[in-house]
From TrEMBL, chain A:
Lineage: Bacteria, Pseudomonadati, Bacteroidota, Cytophagia, Cytophagales
Presence of the UniProt keyword Oxidoreductase in the record: yes
Co-factor(s): FAD
Organism: Hymenobacter ginkgonis
Domain annotation Glucose-methanol-choline oxidoreductase N-terminal: ranges: 99-331
GO molecular function: flavin adenine dinucleotide binding; oxidoreductase activity, acting on CH-OH group of donors
Domain of life: Bacteria
Keyword annotations: FAD, Flavoprotein, Oxidoreductase
Database matches in Pfam families: GMC_oxred_C (PF05199), GMC_oxred_N (PF00732)
Name used for this protein in its record: GMC family oxidoreductase
Length: 558, 199
C-alpha cells in the first residue's frame, strides 16, 4: 500500500467539505480533499450553461431511457436533460429502501453545491432550544450565540443576498443587497403584514451575490444556476471555497477517491487516517493526518463511520451511543396552495430572478399553539403565466398563437417546508447483502414522517390558502403532492451533536466522542432540523469546528 | 433552467389540473406509471417517423401555429421535434396512439373534407383540426388517467412545446434574453407586448 501524510484530510467536497478545506488551508494546514466522483472544473465543465432552450433535443425534459437509468431521480423535477451529469449514476451506486426514500445525490467535485437551491437562513434560539423545551431527543449542545459569529463569517465569504427584516425567528445576517420582490409579491406582502401580527413575507435570502465579490461576477438573472454559473454568481465549491483553498498553496484535491473507512488507532484513541479506494483503478491507498473532517453528506458520512473501526465497535466508529445512523431528518414539503391574482395586467418583470419570497415560521411561536410541535416556512413566488397555460376557449390557429405570445394573468404559489422531528426509529444502516459497483455495502433507508408531520401538512395547506386569500387572490387551491423522506434534499441527523456521549455521536464542537480528531460538520451533525434550509448552518458549524480543531492542534489536544 | 421553486410551482399547477403542452413534458412523459413500467418502457427504442410523416406533421403543426407576422410551426421544424419526442419520451402505448393517430387524422380529413389533409386548403385544414380539438377536449372531460390519451391532444401539446421553445418561437413570437443582467420586479406592460420565453 502507498502511504501519504497531510496535516488534515477532508472527506467530501460539497458545501461543507469545500468550506472545511478553505478554512483549514487558510490556517496553514496542508490539506487533502478527497472526493469520490470526477472533477468538475469551474466554468469549463459547465457544458450546458450557455445553451438556449432550443439547443436541448427534448427541450430540457426527460426521455424514457433517462427514466429507466435514473428511477430515483425521476421521482421529481430533478431528472432533466440539462444537468444530468451532475447527478449520481444510480446503477453504480444503488441503495435499499425499507421505506420509500428519495436520495438525490451528486458525486463529483463540488457535490450538490453545484445544484443546490441556495436559500440561506440563520437559525435562532427558537430552534436550538426546541428539543430541550419540548423534552424530545437530546438538547443541542450549542446556542445561537455560539454560532452567530460563524454565521457572519460564512455569509461574508459566501455572499448571501437578503434583507434585514428584524425577525427574531429568522435572525438577520451580514447580507449583500437583497433582490427585489415583484409588484404582486410586494402587494401580497403588504396585505399579509396588515392582516397578521406575526406573519411576514420577505424576499428570499440566497447565496447569489448581488455585487462583485472575491473575483466573482454578480448575478446576471439568467436563472440557470443548477447548470453551473459561468459568472460564479452563486456559492459553490468551484466558485468560492475551492479557489480560496487553492490560493493558499496548501490544498491537494483528489477526485475518484472513495473513502471506505477511517483508520482508528486503539492506542491513541484517535483516527490516524483513511483508506481510499480509487474509483477508477480500484487500487487502495492510505492517507494519514492529524485531523479528519468528514463531510461526505449526511447519509454518506454516517456510512463512512459505520464502515470504520468495526473491530472495536461492531456498529462502526462513533456508534457507542447507539445513535449513529438514527434520527434521520429532512424537510417535508410539496404541500401548499396557489391562486390567481386580479389586476397588475399593466405590469411585468425584467430578468429571471433566481430567488423567491420566504415566509418565516409563525406556528407554535409567540404564543401560538397547535396540535403538533414546531413549524414550517414557505417558499414561493408570483409570476405571469406563459405559453403553457391552458386557455379553454381557444382552439387552434392564429388566435391561439397570438394569445400565447402574450403573458397571461399573474399567479402566486406557496410551498411549505416543514420541520421533521428526530425520531430514533428513523434510521439508516448498512445492507451488506447489496453491493455497489465497487463491492461496498450500500445504505438501507428505514425512515418516514409521522403523526406530527402529517398534522403539520394540514396547516401547510390551509395557512397558505388563508394567506393568499387574505392577500386578495382568487381561485386559491391547496395541494398535497405527497412526500417521501429525503425528497427535501435536506438529509440530517445521522451523527447528531449532543452534550452526552451516551446519547449523541458528536460533541459541541462536532468532534466524534469516540475519536476526537474526527469532526463531522455536514447535515449528519444536526440535532434537530428546524424548518429553514440548512446549508448556511453547515458552513457556520464547519468554520467553527475548524477553528476549534486548529486551536486544539496547537495545544496538542487532538 | 429552473430553480426549485419554479419546478415546484410547475408541479403544483400540473396537479391542479392545468395540464397542457410544456408542463406535461417538462415534468415527465409518464406521470402515472410505476418504476417497473418505466424501466420496461425505457429499455425499448421507440419508432422512428419517416421523412414523409415528418413533412405531414409539419403541415398539421403549421395549422395549429400558423405563420402570422412571425413564422409558424413548420418554419420552426416542429414536425422533426415531434418525431424526436415521440421516439424518446413517449411510452410504447403512447407511441402507438400517436402513430395510429396520423391515420385517424387522415381518415377524419376524408370524412369531413372528402380528401386527405395535405390536399385540403387552409380553411379546410383549420376546420378539421378545430373539430379534432373539440373532440379531444370533450374526451378529456371524462377521461380517467388509465384511459388512453387522445392523439390530437398529443399533437397539439407537442406543437405548442416544440414551437415556443424553438429558436423562432422563443426569439420571434416570444422574447428571449440570454443574459438579462438585472432584475426589475415591475416594468410597464401594454397589451400586445410579447411574453418572455423563459422564466
Amino acid at each position: 500500500m502507498e502511504k501519504y501524510t497531510y496535516d488534515a484530510i477532508v472527506i467530501g467536497s460539497g458545501i461543507s467539505g469545500g468550506f472545511a478545506a478553505k478554512e483549514l488551508t487558510e490556517k496553514g494546514l496542508k490539506t487533502i480533499m478527497l472526493e469520490r466522483g470526477r472533477n468538475v472544473e469551474h466554468i469549463k465543465d459547465y457544458v450546458n450553461a450557455n445553451k438556449a432552450p432550443w439547443e436541448f433535443p427534448h427541450r430540457g425534459g426527460k426521455t424514457q431511457q433517462m427514466i429507466a437509468d435514473y428511477p430515483v431521480l425521476s421521482r421529481d423535477y430533478t431528472l432533466n436533460e440539462t444537468n444530468l451529469d451532475f447527478w449520481v449514476n444510480e446503477k453504480d451506486s444503488p441503495y435499499a429502501e425499507v421505506k420509500p426514500f428519495d436520495w438525490f445525490r451528486g458525486y463529483q467535485v463540488g457535490g450538490r453545491s453545484l445544484m443546490w437551491g441556495r436559500q440561506s437562513y440563520r437559525w435562532s434560539d427558537y430552534d436550538f432550544e426546541a428539543n430541550a423545551k419540548d423534552g424530545i431527543a437530546v438538547d443541542w449542545p450549542i446556542r445561537y450565540k455560539d454560532l452567530a459569529p460563524w454565521y457572519s463569517h460564512a455569509e461574508k465569504f459566501a455572499g448571501i443576498s437578503g434583507n434585514r427584516d428584524g425577525l427574531p425567528q429568522l435572525p438577520d445576517g451580514d447580507f449583500m443587497p437583497p433582490m427585489e420582490m415583484n409588484c404582486v409579491e410586494k402587494d401580497v406582502a403588504a396585505r399579509i403584514k396588515k392582516h397578521y401580527k406575526d406573519r411576514h413575507m420577505v424576499i428570499g435570502r440566497t447565496a447569489n451575490i448581488t455585487k462583485p465579490h472575491n473575483n466573482r461576477v454578480n448575478c446576471q438573472y439568467r436563472n440557470k444556476c443548477w447548470l453551473g454559473c459561468p459568472f460564479g454568481a452563486y456559492f459553490s465549491t468551484q466558485s468560492a471555497t475551492l479557489p480560496a483553498a487553492v490560493a493558499t498553496g496548501n490544498l491537494t484535491l483528489r477526485p475518484f477517491s472513495i473513502v471506505t473507512k477511517i483508520l482508528y488507532d486503539k492506542d491513541t484513541k484517535r483516527a490516524k487516517g483513511v483508506e481510499v479506494l480509487d474509483a477508477e483503478t480500484n487500487k487502495t491507498y492510505e492517507y494519514f493526518a492529524k485531523i479528519i473532517f468528514l463531510n461526505a453528506s449526511a447519509l454518506n458520512s454516517a456510512w463512512v463511520l459505520m464502515n470504520s473501526a468495526t473491530d472495536v465497535w461492531p456498529e462502526g466508529l462513533g456508534s457507542s451511543s447507539g445513535e449513529l445512523g438514527h434520527n434521520v431528518m429532512d424537510h417535508h414539503f410539496r404541500a401548499g396552495a396557489h391562486g390567481d391574482v386580479e389586476g397588475f395586467e399593466d405590469q411585468y418583470v425584467y430578468g429571471r430572478r433566481a430567488n423567491g419570497i420566504y415566509v418565516p415560521r409563525f406556528r407554535n411561536l409567540f404564543g401560538d399553539k397547535r396540535d403538533y410541535i414546531r413549524g414550517f416556512g414557505y417558499q414561493g413566488s408570483a409570476g405571469r403565466q406563459g405559453w403553457s397555460r391552458d386557455i379553454a376557449e381557444m382552439s387552434i390557429g392564429a388566435e391561439l398563437k397570438e394569445a400565447m405570445t402574450e403573458p397571461g394573468i399573474w399567479t402566486m404559489g406557496l410551498t411549505g417546508f416543514g420541520e421533521t422531528l428526530p425520531y430514533h426509529d428513523n434510521r439508516i444502516f448498512l445492507d451488506k447483502t447489496k453491493k455497489d459497483k465497487w463491492g461496498l455495502p450500500v445504505l438501507a433507508m428505514d425512515a418516514t414522517i409521522r403523526d406530527n408531520e402529517q398534522k403539520m401538512r394540514v396547516d401547510m395547506m390551509q395557512d397558505a390558502k388563508e394567506m393568499l386569500e387574505v392577500a386578495g387572490l382568487k381561485n386559491v387551491t391547496t395541494y398535497n403532492n405527497g412526500y417521501n423522506m429525503g425528497g427535501g434534499i435536506h438529509e440530517m441527523g445521522t451523527a447528531r451533536m449532543g452534550r452526552d456521549p451516551k446519547t449523541s455521536v458528536l460533541n459541541a464542537h462536532n468532534q466524534v466522542w469516540d475519536a476526537p480528531n474526527v469532526y463531522v460538520t455536514d447535515g449528519a451533525a444536526m440535532t434537530s432540523a428546524a424548518c429553514q434550509n440548512p446549508s448556511l448552518t453547515y458552513m457556520a458549524l464547519t468554520a467553527r469546528a475548524v477553528d476549534h480543531a486548529v486551536s486544539e492542534l496547537k495545544k496538542q489536544n487532538v | 433552467m429552473m430553480n426549485r421553486r419554479d419546478a415546484l410551482a410547475r408541479v403544483a399547477l400540473l396537479m391542479g389540473g392545468a395540464v397542457i403542452g410544456g408542463d406535461y413534458f417538462l415534468t415527465g412523459c409518464s406521470p402515472a406509471s410505476s418504476d417497473k413500467e418505466k424501466t420496461q418502457a425505457g429499455a425499448k427504442t421507440g419508432p422512428t417517423l419517416d421523412a414523409k410523416q415528418i413533412a405531414y406533421l409539419d403541415e398539421v403543426s403549421d395549422t395549429i401555429i400558423p405563420t402570422t407576422h412571425t413564422p409558424g410551426a413548420k418554419a420552426a421544424k416542429v414536425g422533426s421535434f415531434m418525431a424526436v419526442m415521440v421516439r424518446d419520451c413517449y411510452k410504447p402505448q403512447d407511441q402507438e396512439i400517436f402513430t395510429k393517430g396520423l391515420t385517424q387524422l387522415e381518415d377524419a380529413s376524408q370524412k369531413m373534407n372528402g380528401k386527405g389533409f395535405l390536399a385540403c386548403d387552409a380553411a379546410q385544414r383549420k376546420a378539421l383540426l378545430t373539430a379534432l380539438d373539440t373532440e379531444q377536449k370533450n374526451y378529456g372531460k371524462t377521461k380517467t388517467p388509465e384511459q388512453p390519451n387522445h392523439y390530437f391532444r398529443m399533437i397539439k401539446e407537442l406543437t405548442l412545446l416544440g414551437y415556443f421553445t424553438s429558436e423562432i418561437g422563443a426569439t420571434q413570437a416570444l422574447r428571449y434574453l440570454p443574459v438579462p443582467g438585472k432584475y426589475e420586479g415591475s416594468v410597464p406592460y401594454k397589451k400586445g407586448d410579447r411574453a418572455w420565453a423563459t422564466t
